[in-house]
Amino acid sequence: MGLSLLASRALRLSRIPSRATQIFLRPIVSTRDLNTPEPATSAAPPPPPPPHRHPVGGARVHFPTPDDAIEVFVDGFAVKIPKGFTVLQACEVAGVDIPRFCYHDRLSIAGNCRMCLVEVEKSPKPVASCAMPALPGMKIKTDTPIAKKAREGVMEFLLMNHPLDCPICDQGGECDLQDQSMAFGSDRGRFTEMKRSVVDKNLGPLVKTVMTRCIQCTRCVRFASEIAGVQDLGMLGRGSGEEIGTYVEKLMTSELSGNVIDICPVGALTSKPFAFKARNWELKGTETIDVTDAVGSNIRIDSRGPEVMRVLPRLNEDINEEWISDKTRFFYDGLKRQRLNDPMIRGPDGRFKTVSWRDALAIVAEVVNQVKPEEIVGVAGKLSDAESMIVLKDFLNKMGSNNIWCEGNGPNPNADLRSGYIMNTSISGLEQADAFLLVGTQPRVEAAMVNARIRKTVRATHAKVGYIGPPTDFNYDHQNLGTSPQTLVEIAEGRHPFSATLANAKNPVIILGAGIFERMDKDAIFTVVNAIAKKHNVVRPDWNGLNTLLINAAQAAALDLGLVPESDRSIESAKFIYLMGADDVSLEKLPNDAFVVYQGHHGDRSVYRANVILPASAFTEKEGTYANTEGCAQTTLPAVPIVGDARDDWKIIRALSEVAGIQLPYDSLGGIRSRIRTVAPNLLEIDERVPATFSNSLRPESSQKIKPEPFGVTVENFYMTDAITRASKIMAQCSALLKK
Amino acid sequence: MGSVVRNALNSIKEKGITNFFRELRQQGYLNALLDGNLMQTKIHNIGATLVGVDKFGNKYYENLKVQYGRHRWVEYASKTRYNASQVPPEWHGWLHFITDRTGDELLRLKPSRYGAEHRENLTGQGDEYIYHSKGHALNSGQRDWTRYESWQPTKP
């Protein structure tokens, strides 16, 4: 900029702006009225009180202590809010949505984007509402010329260094900056200089960075350090040289890293697998749940035609808040690979040959009618829904066999006491806990959302965490008490220092991992844990802190439905084995002449041993009920059509029963659900958590001896746990790059 | 005219009568007996200079002694089915007096880096020559709309 230009600008500014000069000078703001904003107090006639507005998003205000309510005025309308609310929250209660970039409900307050400026009476300057505590009697003005001009100015500065690449930006259409510049920004710019540019960072295979678009709201930095618990991201530099980055070149190694894509208000952090694949307005959203772990995170599947394009979290305060794990968010490309789309029969030459459904079912029915009933075995996979599991159980029971179980539940699961296999505290209930005892479980890889909840609690209340198991990675402070069940005995007998922590705790929580189900001495471990619970008052009428953390989506429903095998050695004597998506069941001991039917959606592990393959639908393609680890039943909804010639799980078994001559008495999902009602009515209470009726202390004491062998690692690879995630290329990349 | 007859007699002497008639047929003189256009072109060619031959075999002639505007013409490679769309783009400009650079010069000046090969317009030549868009039932290069990969039993 030349000196003469500066001089002329100074001269122009010193002159009193008149109507005539305004024609030649570019106005500072687009709206004529905002050129000379005056404090709202000078407005002579008081406007009539505005009509009652509802809080933003239909939110409800919770008053912890009713005496602490204060009254503020937002745009002349009085609202009651609890003490400690910020001005922004007060405005939200009043139904006024304040524009913001850096403020996020679940993160600490930064107050650095300045977008939320409002006018407060008797305040000389506009105040940043997100960082300003509301005081009694405060008069907040959100719609005055000063507030509007402040927003317009902030927006102009934000857009100064923001590239105008919306047409090639993946955030386009769902970008906060785009929306808010339309709503609150100026309709013209005065910017003629060069924009700055920032080097892109490599955050790994999931998060794509275009750092030039960053507006330094620091939401991602706060998310990483507060929620994800990894100190990877930070702020470097000052002023216009400020940039977000990892200080040294480093990948973001958090199992929640995908959430920074959602919280980034601009297109600086976007999804790498989704990059340039679709625009958000082309997508159809289907609100369903996730089945890759036992948490049952609420998700929205965005699909375009027959393809799942991306997975986004859905708000559910009781389960996943508004986060999901990386596995949930990025496994979806596994749905497009290795799919079984035609019924196949293994010929005498050992090769598979595509056949029609009629032929495939006829062969299965012929074989199943030839073998003895006790030689029939059924295994439900970890992704099975409750409906298909009850149909499979009914089918096998009608054939005369009772050897059916769900993989992951161990050799002889105990389905008698529901409190023995679900999370009795409930996931949101963990926030009240003040001491955790994790027994043989690594929640960070087994259930990332539960781990995030524990971390939230530990961060908020400094709860003590004791952990018994092999050394593993935690993202919060913990004590490794030992590796074997022997430590449990010490705690039960009060010889261990951690028993003092449990004794002092008001709401202690014990979480047992599902890996214990596979141990031979599981009953003894449950007995010891029950003793600890009894001693430290873990189970009270108002508090139940004795939990089991499951790892598979089908586990809880399978135990609810009573999928318990008659003998734990049934697989060794099986002549006919029906695998319903069971890929992790060990088939080594299966006799060579056994007839294996594999019904599933992915050609994964068990399919190579199968004699007949019946293609089924994946969870994104069917309606099915799943119970999560806390016993909350939820349903999936079909987002995309079924691939190829596949069919729903329950329909296949229903058709098979008819071909086999023992027709099952239902032929619709409604019919199956009324059958479920007689077995496990809690599975029909959709989206409602039904607590267990009987306490786990009723479990009979076992005379088993505890074995000294240490607890194992249940989930070896967080990213690849089931048939879908094992087929996913993105998950394979993640496990190659991010697995520690 | 006398020179034409002399040249013809000379070449019969050189090549023999069979070869002479074969060449006569190949160069379209037999077609020219029935095809007035071709006959006129052949008559024009006498005394004209052959400026160049393109990759399809079309010959481009110029005769500056004839009336201006009629001094450039093409003798198509095909003597039976010829039409104007057989002229490739590099010669089109020269032939239509848009440029004085011949097609060969243009190719030397600006080598083509990309672009489809020139094809004559085959309208009316039969169904197999009609353009069908991607996804049309008659397009041989059918687009695969399957959005998933199926499991292949032969793979390990």
TrEMBL record, chain A:
GO cellular component: mitochondrial inner membrane
Residues in 4Fe-4S His(Cys)3-ligated-type domain copies: 146-185
GO-annotated molecular function: 2 iron, 2 sulfur cluster binding; 4 iron, 4 sulfur cluster binding; metal ion binding; NADH dehydrogenase (ubiquinone) activity; oxidoreductase activity, acting on NAD(P)H
Keyword Transcription regulation: no
Protein location: Mitochondrion inner membrane
Signal peptide: none
Cofactor needs: [2Fe-2S] cluster; [4Fe-4S] cluster
Function: Core subunit of the mitochondrial membrane respiratory chain NADH dehydrogenase (Complex I) that is believed to belong to the minimal assembly required for catalysis. Complex I functions in the transfer of electrons from NADH to the respiratory chain. The immediate electron acceptor for the enzyme is believed to be ubiquinone. This is the largest subunit of complex I and it is a component of the iron-sulfur (IP) fragment of the enzyme. It may form part of the active site crevice where NADH is oxidized.
Protein name: NADH dehydrogenase [ubiquinone] iron-sulfur protein 1, mitochondrial
Origin species: Lithospermum erythrorhizon (Purple gromwell)
UniProtKB/TrEMBL annotation, chain B:
Alphabetic keyword roster: Electron transport, Membrane, Mitochondrion, Mitochondrion inner membrane, Respiratory chain, Transport
CC per GO annotation: mitochondrial inner membrane; respiratory chain complex I
Signal sequence region: none
Keyword Mitochondrion: yes
Highest taxon listed in the record's lineage: Eukaryota
Gene Ontology biological-process annotations: response to oxidative stress
Subcellular location: Mitochondrion inner membrane
A Pfam short name: NDUFA12
Membrane protein topology class: Peripheral membrane protein
Alphabetized InterPro entries for the sequence: NDUFA12
Main location: mitochondrion
PANTHER family found in the cross-reference section: NADH DEHYDROGENASE [UBIQUINONE] 1 ALPHA SUBCOMPLEX SUBUNIT 12, NADH-UBIQUINONE OXIDOREDUCTASE SUBUNIT B17.2
Annotated family: Belongs to the complex I NDUFA12 subunit family.
Function: Accessory subunit of the mitochondrial membrane respiratory chain NADH dehydrogenase (Complex I), that is believed not to be involved in catalysis. Complex I functions in the transfer of electrons from NADH to the respiratory chain. The immediate electron acceptor for the enzyme is believed to be ubiquinone.
Protein name: NADH dehydrogenase [ubiquinone] 1 alpha subcomplex subunit 12
Source organism of the structure: Lithospermum erythrorhizon
